[in-house]
Design goal:
Strand order of the largest sheet: 14-13-19-10-11-18-15-16
GO molecular function, one term: GTP binding
Low-confidence stretches: 1-10, 40-52
Protein name: Eukaryotic translation initiation factor 5B
Helix content: 25-40%
Bound molecules: guanosine-5'-diphosphate
EC number: 3.6.5.3
Organism: Heracleum sosnowskyi
Number of strands: 31
Distance between the termini: 73 Å
Keywords: Cytoplasm, GTP-binding, Hydrolase, Initiation factor, Metal-binding, Nucleotide-binding, Protein biosynthesis
Length: 622
């Protein structure tokens, strides 16, 4: 890398890349950011857990200095800086989109060299792949290799050369293992300086033809002693400037997405936004998408976290009259309380028609809102941003999951959301009186009301655990319900009386039958479709080779006893009301079909489902 040099930045006008940091819990995401910033937030947090989105802007000079100092290369920096976003609910941020493309330009996937790839890493990989976000891997905690000699902030090549043979071997062993783990995930990876020049260009061409993935760069790092950090910064910058020129070309038109809506005591509500393109000014008239409609307001104040500090650290804001993209900004304005996180805000220009801008602003939200299940029955879904809501709705809709949604909301779960979810109790859909809270807080009020009324709230900051919790609940709920209605559960069946097997002609009728179709179960009402659907009673006993059984399946030959549902004077008799050639058919009703459809449908064999459908036609059940 010693000879890496960039051409002078002249006619290209690039904005700062937006970079997201992902990885499993404890991989060192927070520490890595601390190290990049030279601050220490991680220790100040409860249990070191990142509580909310934090953003760090790394100015160009800082980037250049660090790279130059440690790597002794001159960087012709074209990007003004680097905007790093530390996202605890990765999914939330990764799902944010602005004008159809992801907010995040690149990502750093942090992997602990001692742990390798963990399930959460795999989730991150899925997300990166789905969003087509390019990324590098920071193979963190190299200083934990036994016997590692610290070389503060050194390039990884230099640091590695200082290590004993044993440490180097151990490093190679772990690296090889992790490369193999990535391979298992279908990804090629290698130490970044072992990837040959031109290798990826070639691969990218092949990939376009649908052949192979390019090799992912691995940068070994220590977030504690700083080895490899300059390499990582160089790699990010180099990569952006080489491969993302088009995406990173600065545009004047304001492109700005709301990340979070913050209700602050005292100074009202503010919104945290990422300004991707354009300039915002104090006094600009803006339109923000609101839960109840467009919010037209004026920017009262614009502030950013101090460079190198992050938004989470209090009292470190800088105020601006105007700010140019890309930046992470706090906007103060009136009436922002109902703003919808994850939507784009629009600036009203002198020639703009306010009504048109309003419509534009509401467009994304409306398209998401329109996806609610039409029957009005389903769970209530609450997510942190429009993007994460959208991702969750998409996921719930997939055939493998198939969970209907009746209502949606964005932001923390409040009392009103619980009251909306509660409607499902009135509709006798207890299992849907549930809120799936994706990466949002639940207010204590809401929790109290939910407990009181029997509304369930499931929370998680990633999709899979959230859905799994709900599925487990549905399963238990279903099993309970099955027990409750066991007596009323009957299946469709078609029976044929065997000649010479009419043992008793009138109530209780006892006949030998072949089960031609379906399942005959004790309790099943039997009718004769050929004789105007006359009801002859219910199956009260089934004997299979002298053994009493509860049910008999297609293909079996059994004796059944049918006892009358009719008063004595109207009792049906064999030979009078029906004959040997008449088929005996289960008389299914709307409610018995409901039970099958609601509780047993997934487990019914195809043939039986078909029979149910045919019986619905036979009995004219719509
Ligand atoms: P996060 O959950 O991914 O944000 O992980 P943190 O940044 O909170 O780090 C988890 C733990 O690993 C903390 O105790 C850190 O001090 C420690 N840690 C993080 N990076 C390194 C590293 O490079 N070397 C060593 N030795 N420890 C690290």
């Amino acid at each position: 890398i010693a000879q890496v040099e960039f051409e002078k930045a002249d006619n290209e006008n690039l904005r700062s890349p937006i970079c997201c940091i992902m990885g499993h819990v404890d991989a060192g995401k927070t520490k890595l950011l601390d190290c990049i910033r030279g601050t220490n937030v991680q220790e100040g947090e409860a249990g070191g857990i990142t509580q909310q989105i934090g953003a760090t802007y790394l100015p160009g000079e800082n980037l250049r200095d660090r790279i130059n100092r440690e790597l002794k290369v001159h960087v012709g920096l074209k990007v003004p800086g680097l905007l790093l976003i530390d996202t605890p609910g990765h999914e939330s941020f990764m799902n944010l989109r602005s004008r159809g493309s992801g907010l995040c330009d690149i990502a750093i996937l942090v992997v602990d060299i001692m742990d390798g790839i963990k399930p959460q890493t795999v989730e991150s990989l899925k997300l990166l792949k789905m969003r087509k976000t390019p990324f590098i891997v920071a193979l963190n905690k190299v200083d934990r290799l036994y016997g590692w000699k610290t070389c503060h902030n050194a390039s990884i090549v230099k640091a590695k050369n200082q290590q004993s043979k044993d440490v180097q071997n151990e490093f190679e062993r772990r690296l090889t293992e992790i490369i193999a783990q990535f391979k298992e995930q279908g990804l090629n990876s290698n130490l970044y300086y072992r990837i040959k020049r031109g290798e990826n260009e070639e691969k990218r061409e092949k990939e376009e033809k649908g052949e192979r993935e390019e090799t992912i760069s691995i940068v070994p790092t220590s977030a504690i002693s700083g080895e490899g950090i300059p390499d990582m910064l160089l790699l990010l910058v180099k990569w952006c400037q080489r491969d993302m020129v088009e995406k990173l070309t600065y545009r004047d038109k304001v492109q700005c997405t709301v990340l979070e809506v913050k209700v602050n005591e005292g100074d009202g509500t503010t919104i945290d936004v990422v300004l991707v393109n354009g300039v915002l000014h104090e006094g600009d008239q803006i339109v923000v998408c609101g839960m109840q409609g467009p919010i037209v307001t004026t920017i009262r104040a614009l502030s950013t976290p101090h460079p190198l500090k992050e938004l989470r650290v209090k009292g470190t804001y800088l105020h601006h009259k105007e700010i140019k993209a890309a930046q992470f900004i706090k906007i103060a304005a009136q009436d922002l309380k109902n703003a919808v996180a994850g939507t784009d805000i629009y600036v009203v220009g002198p020639n703009d028609d306010l009504e048109v801008v309003k419509e534009l602003t509401m467009g994304d939200k409306e398209s998401v809102m329109n996806r609610i299940h039409r029957t009005g029955e389903g769970v209530y879904v609450q997510a942190s941003t429009l993007g994460s809501l959208e991702a969750l709705l998409d996921f719930l809709k997939t055939p493998a999951v198939n969970i209907p949604v009746s209502g949606i909301g964005i932001g923390p779960v409040h009392k009103k959301d619980v009251m909306r979810a509660r409607i499902m109790l009135e509709k006798k859909k207890k299992e849907y009186a549930t809120i799936l809270a994706f990466d949002v807080k639940v207010t204590p009020d809401a929790r109290g009301i939910a407990d009181k009324h029997g509304v369930r709230i499931f929370t998680a900051d990633t999709i899979y655990p959230l859905i799994n919790q709900f599925k487990a609940y549905i399963h238990t709920h279903k099993e309970e319900k099955k027990k409750d209605v066991a007596d009323k559960t009957i299946y469709p069946c078609v029976l044929k009386i065997k000649p010479e097997c009419v043992f008793k002609k009138k109530d209780p009728i006892i006949v030998g039958v072949d089960v031609l179709q379906g399942i005959a179960k004790v309790g099943t009402p039997i009718c004769i479709p050929q004789k105007k659907f006359i009801d002859i009673g219910r199956i009260t006993r089934i004997l299979n080779k002298e053994q009493q059984v509860d049910l008999a399946r297609k293909g079996s030959a059994v004796s059944i006893e049918i006892s009358g549902s009719n008063p004595v004077e109207k009792q049906t008799k064999f030979g009078r009301h029906f004959e040997i050639e008449d088929e005996l058919v289960s008389h299914l009703s709307r409610s018995s079909i409901d039970i099958l459809e609601e509780l047993y449908w997934d487990e019914l064999p195809k043939e039986l489902r078909k029979l149910v459908v045919n019986m619905k036609k036979l009995f004219k059940i719509l």
